[in-house]
Amino acid sequence: MQKTGLFFGSFNPIHIGHLIIANHIVEHTDIDEVWLVVTPHNPLKKKTTLLNDFQRLSMVRLATENYPKIKASNIEFNLPQPNYTINTLTVLQEKYPNKKFILLMGEDNLASLPKWKNYEAILAYYQIYVYPRIHQKTVPDYLTAHASIKKIKAPIIEISATQIRQYIKQGKNVRPLLPPEIFKYIEEMHFYK
User: Which parts of the chain sit beneath pLDDT 70?
Assistant: First the structure.
């Protein structure tokens, strides 16, 4: 059974940090492929600097073209809002019964897992691979010791899309932080200015 890692995010924009983590997981763990799941805009949240769903999906597709084991996914675009991970997992499992889905998340997100809808069901039916992040949050012991949670070794990447958008607005050079095709696309489209 093929193991598919699910890496959720707004990818606003996708940057080299996302690709470094996804590629590391696919090359150095038992995961066969990683799907970058583009999360739609939550209609209850203020839009601020979030590009529309399809622009972000286009960027993820563009950035992953040369990574055969990493794919863009728009699975959440057609699901009811707001999106809950448990619902997405259920839909994916029905649609792809021959795949074993594994959640990928940074250690900082693990701390907030108990706030997720039906998080106990996620832990009962799915594995979560956790990559290291620098953070101040306290992860409860029962989570770090949970049988469904596997800590993986991966580079600690401290690049944030929020920071990238601020730098672009300030006219700073963000070329080293973005895949070349994404840098070009953002420049051409005048995004985040």
Answer: 42-49
Alpha carbon separation from 9 to 76, 85, 97, 145, 161 (Å, rounded): 11, 11, 23, 25, 10
Distance of alpha carbon 122 from alpha carbon 146, whole angstroms: 12
* Contact (CB, 8 A) for 13 and 43: no
Kindly list the structural domains of the chain, giving each domain's residue range(s) and its CATH number in brackets, ordered by start.
Answer: 2-158 (3.40.50.620)
Beta-carbon count within 10 A of 144 CB: 12
Q: Collect all residues with Cβ–Cβ distance below 8 Å to 3 and sequence separation of at least 6.
A: 30, 31, 32, 33, 99, 100, 102
> pLDDT (tens digit, 9 = 90+) per residue, 109-140?
898 999 999 999 999 999 999 999 887 888 88
* CA dist., res. 65 & res. 172, Å (int): 27
The strand pairing partners of 99, in sequence order, are 2
